[in-house]
Amino acid sequence: MNDACHLPPYLLQQLINGITLGSVYGLIAIGYTMVYGIVGMINFAHGEIFMIGAFIALMSYLILPPMGGAGLVAALVIVLLVTMLLTGVYGWTLERVAYRPLRRSPRLAALISAIGMSIALQNYVQLTQGARVKTLQPVIQGGYTLMESEGFTVTLSVMQVMIVALTIFLMVIFWYVISHTALGRAQRACEQDRHMAALLGIDVDRTISITFVIGAALAAVAGTVAVMYYGVIDFFIGFLAGMKAFTAAVLGGIGSIAGAVLGGLLIGLIEAFWSGCFSVEYKDVATFSILVLVLIFRPTGLLGRPEVEKV
Amino acid sequence: MAAIKDAAVAAGIAAALFLFFIGVHTVPRGGVLSVETRWAAFGVAVAVVFAGRLAIDLLFGLRRPTIRVAIPERLRGASRWVGPALVVFALALPFLPFADRRVMDVAILVATYVMLGWGLNIVVGLAGLLDLGYVAFYAVGAYTCALLSINFGFGFWACLPLAGLMAATFGVALGFPVLRLRGDYLAIVTLGFGEMIRIVLTNWVSLTRGPNGITGVPRPSHFGLATTPLERVVFLYYVILLLALATNFITLRLRRLPLGRAWEALREDEIACRALGINPTTVKLSAFAIGATIGGVAGSFFAARQGFISPESFTFIESAIILAIVVLGGMGSQLGVVLAAFVLMGIPEWFRELQEYRMLAFGICMVLIMIWRPRGLLAVRTPTIRLRRAP
Predict the structure, then answer these.
(1) B80-92 mean pLDDT
(2) Angstroms from B242 CA to nearest CA on chain A
(3) Chain A with chain B: Cβ pairs closer than 8 A
(4) What is the band of B183 on the pLDDT scale with cuts at 50, 70, 90?
(5) Are residues B180 and B270 in the same domain?
(6) B31 and B152 belong to one structural domain
(7) Å from B177 to nearest chain A CA?
(8) Residue A240 contacts residue A284 (beta carbons within 8 Å)
(9) How high is the ipTM of this complex?
(10) Global pTM?
């Protein structure tokens, strides 16, 4: 165990880092949980959508001329919107091409199709962008020093504040859409009973498509954040990020959107504290162990509803 | 006119998809990343989508139902003689005129995956447990064999059962806590286990030598049967072929035992099984353990054949490929596994030159086969037992 783990400032720093990382996982996890809730399948290629989003953000940022000050903020907003839009198109296409034809097929068929799509997307990006790791200099520098004691400086960077603020902002919008609009109502109806919803005049295909687009757009935000904040991406980042976000969704209770965010935060915190205090190499083992433990002792997750098996 | 409009929409979507990645791509320039455009490739890609969509629309009409490919009825009865014929062909393969070194290497590869596919078929196809981390047992078998032979001087033939036993132990240890879970959750947990094993293998440097892997695993002793390099390859081929056929034989026999029937019953309806007094946990655990044993044996063959193993060989993609072989073949179908292993492992080997595009095509094929034949290539799920009408 790392000696520094006894010091409050060090722990505070890990807390800040963990919340930032957790926001990214939470944003991806929403995509998993929404799709699972509405179609009842694990969208295995969702991690790849996140990776695609990160690449689109990287490229659209590089296209824009370098700017500073207000220009930079405008550029970042443009990057974010372009990324959300184009990644949304990827999400839509994914559902249309790989999942819709299989909606009435055995569940395993859809899962295999998703795995195939995931392999195809990874290799598509590898082929078109090269296998090498892409690095980007930190886009926004600067931050605040929160406290300095016992030889540690706790900093909160501007980026971290922006990430958390952006996540909260999106969550509020998203919550509003789900609970107060016709679209959200249609989604919740499809989640409960797809056939009944169809009988009542809801266009189920369209609702499912929109669900995929929203999930992809949120993953795109996570991708943008990942490339701007961590600055290191390659064609393979989707796999691990997807796994962890799925863990987050399960931990929070799959199907529950608040649970996905909560689960994301918890996974981010666990990962930050584990790599800060124990070993970086085994941080993924720690995350997966949490997943196994949760599933054994509380299979419905933290905020999930118990599933009733009907005969 | 409607067809052109439809194709134009498809081309528009393709343009949105390909604008980045194909139209714009990143290049490292002097240590700093920058972007370049390649509009020619972009234009070609969009034009291909437009033309392709237009062709499909004109050929099949706009309101086409989802395409499903069906196997003609008269081919169904053929499976009775296809199996034995394939066995004869496989046994005779090394003596056929075209069987050079390369063919034998591909044949060994395909046979290994057939064996893995049959092993996983017990878990997924018969017992209906979705296992996304099957490669973990393959890895355990391979490392058991490699470590035993490197550290204690065990030969391949002594390693083989021990590797199987070790993998079975892992199967029971990992399976016991998680087998109560429902399908999708089980899938993710097994995926997590697969990754955990790989991470441990990478980081436990003092035991496994970490990412560098273990070199110098001795080849199987061939009892003086083989002298030339080609004969040695042929010997290896027969080893894996016999292991695979043994797997098949064991599976077919198991299906007729009460245990095998319990697996299939459990796959169909767990609640009914519990009502009839079948203990789901032990039944599932036995399927998991037997599947793991087969994976472990295949893993130890892999280690001895390669002479070198590293955690790189046991990534999730391997699990996905093995699962794809089972599902594409048609779950529970022994013959389907052979066909799918050949399609997924054998055919791509002939396109080695197109290395870069191999995995892309692999992924797309997985999607297409699932769309055209959602129940797998050979989806004839024959009931093992039939009720006979009373005389």
Answers:
(1) 81
(2) 29
(3) 173
(4) low
(5) yes
(6) no
(7) 7
(8) yes
(9) 0.85
(10) 0.87
Does residue B139 fall inside a structural domain? yes
Domain ranges, ordered by start, for chain A? 3-297
Tell me: pLDDT of B356 over 60.
yes
Residue B18 lies in a domain: yes
Span B278-283, mean pLDDT? 87
Where do the H-state alpha helices sit in chain A? 8-39, 46-63, 70-94, 107-129, 158-180, 182-192, 194-199, 204-225, 237-252, 257-277, 283-297
Query: CA B25, B28, B29: angle at the middle one, nearest 5?
Result: 115
> Per residue in B283-317, pLDDT tens?
889 998 999 999 999 999 999 888 888 888 888 88
Are B48 and B82 in a shared domain? no
**DSSP 8-state code for residue B386:** -
Q: Is B300 helix (H, G, I), strand (E, B) or coil?
A: helix
Whether B296 and B342 map to the same domain: the answer is yes
Mean pLDDT of chain A: 86
How far is it, in rounded angstroms, from Cα B161 to Cα A21?
45
The rounded distance, in Å, linking the Cα atoms of B275 and A260 is 36
The CB density around residue A125, as the number of other CB atoms within 10 Å, is 25
Is B378 inside any structural domain? no
Domain count, chain B: 2
Q: Between residues B66 and A18, which one has the greater pLDDT? A: A18
Indicate if B252 and B366 belong to the same structural domain. yes
Contact (CB<8Å) B195/A129: no
B28 CB neighbours in chain A (<8 A) are 132
Retrieve residue A247's tokens.
Answer: 């863990």
**CATH assignment of the domain containing B159:** 1.10.3470
Structural domain span for residue B29: 2-60
Hey, what are B156's tokens? 């391949």
Q: Which CATH class is domain A3-297?
A: mainly alpha
- pLDDT value for A268: 92
